[in-house]
Sequence to fold (577 residues):
Amino acid sequence: MRDATKRWVDGFAKAFYIAKKDAKVYYFKAPNFTYGLLMPVSLFIAFSIAGQIDSRLIVSGLTSLVVLFGTTSIEAVAVVLERQTGTFERLLAAPVSFFTLILGKALAGFFFGLIIATLFLVPLVVISGTSVANPALVLVAVASSSLTFSALGVLVSAYAKWVPEAQMLANFLRFPMAFLSGAFVPSKLMPSQLWVAAHFLPLTYSVEALRIAMNDSAVTFTYWFNLLVLALFSLALLAAAAKVLQKKIE
Amino acid sequence: MKVVIKAQELTKRYGDLSALDHVNLDVFEGEIFGLLGPNGAGKTTMIRLFTGQIKPTSGSATVKGFDIVHEPIRAKEHVGVVLEVSNLYDELSAWDNLLFMAQLYGVPKREREERTKRLLELIGLYGRSRDRVGAFSRGMKRRLTIAAALIHKPDVLFLDEPTTGLDVQSSKTIRNLLKELNKGGTTIFLTTHYIEEADQLCQRVAIINQGKIITVNNPERLKASVEEQHIIEASFSPFQDLCDQLRELDHVNAASMIGDKFRLYVEDASKVVPLLIDFSRQNNLKIVSINTLKPSLEDAFVKITGLSPEVMMVEKEQRSEKSRNIG
Fold:
């Protein structure tokens, strides 16, 4: 029992070291922050100029987009780059389990998503005067979203052979999600087929969880349901990434 | 002698292709063991299997008694790996690269910095420890890659083509480093297609071709096994590639070109020397030199595998070119 606990603790510690290394090598560079922030900020300005916006509606939607684009932009290429340079073999030869390795990769994107969402949300709330009903619930929703999108990035990266392929694949998933998830238009207003399709996308649950956290100070069932779905997406995406990657390596 | 690396019927298949075919091998504690063979023979596959990067199709392998499939983490804890490409993080400093490896291999926190410092001193890079690895030369990267493999004081060190693409001085430095490590008790398993490297470094050599181990012995015994074969080395003026014509001569089993000389593997030197004199006359060539040689490990390799050493030379050049293009 003690051995098993020690192995888990060691595994998480090593996943954290992999994430820390990834943060230094890939994430914490100025262009990555600007890329993650640029599109959502531009969209916010565009909506503001057009007028007629419910700031809480648009801020929550855009925050989810910041997390999606921020995490996946690097996560989707991190494993591809490591495989191309041969550094991934270094990780494979180290005494870490495959789960630890994949978790480490996802954690780097997770932390980056949290930071970039904070950098976007705090100034925007202050400048626009948007009220936030429950900041703690917002943080939990951002964290859950960040883990899910990071796992999505790992899956894309596991599947792709080259960086351009990974970027193309990431965009193929991100842009339809951005327009179907209700980030700009509430999903209730969509045609029924699109409304159904939206519920197969993790961004839909992220947007909804954030919207509830910004509007309601109390925790609702729908909020927890959205977090649960995000958690299930995270597990499924990480498991799929591990399977795809193992197949590619063999 | 204690066996530290063991393969039993180890097989790796990729579709219809057998990268390794029922390999049986024992490597003993404290020896430098070389796996010698041409490109595509299965050397890298064997290293990848022993270091737990891929799983065998069938058969088993153990390192320090731990099965690489069922106890991979325990096996990897005893192993240091230097892969063919110096796969360090170019964006990180030498110091940060080694520190990351110390964290990954579970080196106790209080020892990490001391070991990093000591290893950087050992490989002569302490003065450059805060520089980004991307700015290092190929030889410096190679030394640092070896240091990264030693951070957790492994019992067994695997090296895949440790000196490929390096200049003479860097290769010598690395060979000396490996000899020192071996004196300290580290078991070394290396792959190489440099025959002279295997001869200089290894206590035992396995020759591998097309996924099969052809023979395992120490270099001197391998050389002795071909002593019944005579070798003549000759050079002609004006210089031109005469390999194909020389192979056609009676009593000549094989011929290869080494620099401006031709090496002929013959049954009886006394019968071939007069033929060479006739050959030079018929082709208006002047014999610059003609010598009989004692068999080398290269000669043993030629006899055992039936491959020309030129095959290995061509691959070396092509691979070096490839590395340059990537770099």
